[in-house]
Every structure is written in structure tokens, then in C-alpha cells.
Amino acid sequence: MAAQTKCLAVDDHPAVRQGLALLLAGADDIELVEAVDSGEAVLEAIEKHDPSVVIVDVRLPGIDGISAVKRIAERAPSVKTVVFSAYGDKRLLSDAIAAGARGYVMKGSPPEDLIRAIRTVNLGKAFVDPSLSPALLMTQGVVDAPLSEREREILQLLAEGLHTEEVAERIGLSAETVKSDTKRAITKLEADGRVHAVAIALRQALIE
After folding, report:
1. Rounded to whole angstroms, how far apart are CA atoms 12 and 40?
2. In terms of Cα–Cα distance, which of 192, 206, 59, 71 is closest to 128?
3. In angstroms, rounded to a whole number, what is the distance separating the alpha carbons of residues 131 and 109?
4. Comparing C-alpha atoms, which of 23, 47, 45 is closest to residue 36?
5. Where does the pLDDT of residue 2 fall: very low under 50, low under 70, confident under 90, or very high at 90 and above?
6. Residue 61 or residue 79, greater confidence
7. Angle between the N-to-C axes of helices 14-25 and 111-122, in degrees from 0 to 180, rounded to the nearest 10
8. Dihedral of the alpha carbons of 157, 161, 165, 170, in degrees to the nearest 10
9. What integer is the mean pLDDT of 104-123?
10. Which fold has domain 135-203?
11. For 11, what's the count of Cα atoms within 13 Å in the CB-facing half-sphere?
């Protein structure tokens, strides 16, 4: 049998934690090692369990979910995070991706979507809930003005958490050229900024 993917979950509602435990117990390849109720507790639990994936609620007491995602990315960069939220607005999605989340799943979506998100991010890919409104993530510009190979490469590296200077070094371009290509991709996707452009590109499978 293949090794199980170790998961942590953080949600301040007991019923949600119990529901996650029941859901993940039905997946042979996923093990929920602990479910905690705060951002502070999940940071401690990561040190204890060394999980591969952490499921994070947005609204948490103390350290909020987006801040928890950012701290996880800083302290344990190998750990992938999936935001599990009742809110599907563009700002939260963009903030989650900017903080380092690799997945975003709505609490009202079918339970199998969360399972799929865990499996997807554990493979190093990104997952955005398919139930999110197309208005948040899709534009006519995706069809009318497809991204160039270099623009897709830059957005892919940005999605993986690299900064402009790191992207430039990775692909052998100047930082100014990377900035220029990023702006061009933002314009083509009719995005509000580079974080929103990354979200659109993820949803449209232009990048992984």
C-alpha cells in the first residue's frame, strides 16, 4: 500500500472538525493526524506531526487563516496548504494565493472536491474550487489573447511563490523584463494585479 498523505486541519467549529475527520477517514490514501481550533495550535501541530498538507479555515480566532497560511509557508515551505472557506470572493482567493496557499475549496462544495484538492496539492499542483463564479477567475481575454510561453512560465513561477528577482534569475532574464512580461500577462487576462492573474491562470489551467 502506498504511503498515506498526512494532513492537519484547523477550524474553530467542532462540527466542521468532526466532519473533516469522518470525510478523510474514508480516503485510504489520506490520514488526518490532528484537527485543531486555532492558527497558533496548527503551527505547533506542524512541528509535532510533519504533515504534507494542512487544511486551513479562513475565519479563525487569533491568527486568521490567511496569516496562518503565510506563517506556514515561511516556517515549513514544504507543507502545502488548502484553504477551506465559506467565502468565495476574489479578494480572499487572491490573498490566499499570495500568502502561499496551493488550494482553495468552498465548504459548500461536494466533499470529494476537498479530497481531490488534497491529492492535487500533494503532487505539487494547484487546485481552485470549480464552483467559484467564473466572473472571479475567467475573462474573454483568455481566449482572445492567450499567454505567450514566457508569460505562462513567469506566472507559473510566481504561483510557486518566487519573487520577481528570483523568477528573473531562474529563467535568465532581467528583473525589468520579468516585470514587463508580468504586466503584459495581467493586461491579457484583464486581471486586477499579478495575484489575480495567477488565480485566473490557475483556474484556466494555463499553469499548474
Report:
1. 12
2. 206
3. 7
4. 45
5. low
6. 79
7. 70
8. -40
9. 91
10. Arc Repressor Mutant, subunit A (1.10.10)
11. 21
pLDDT for 187: 86
Q: Which of 155, 134, 153 is nearest to 143 (CA)?
A: 134
Average pLDDT over residues 115-136: 80
Q: Indicate the class that CATH gives domain 5-131.
A: alpha beta
pTM of the model: 0.68
Helix (H, G, I), strand (E, B) or coil at 176: helix
How far is Cα 31 from Cα 150, in angstroms, rounded to an integer? Answer: 38
Locate all alpha helices (DSSP H) within the chain, ordered by sequence.
Answer: 14-25, 39-49, 65-75, 90-99, 111-122, 134-137, 141-144, 149-159, 164-171, 175-188, 194-203
Q: Is the pLDDT of residue 133 over 60?
A: no
Give me the residue spans of the domains in the chain.
5-131, 135-203
The position carrying cell 484537527 is: 35
In this prediction, residue 22 carries a pLDDT of 93
Residue labelled with grid coordinates 495575484: 195
Residue 181 half-sphere exposure toward CB, CA atoms < 13 A: 22
- Is the model's pLDDT at 143 over the cut of 60? no
3-state secondary structure of 103: strand
Cβ count near 3 (within 10 Å): 8
| Per-residue model confidence (pLDDT) at position 1 | 47
CA distance 49 to 47: 6
**Cβ atoms within 10 Å, residue 180:** 12
Give me the pLDDT at residue 71, please. 93
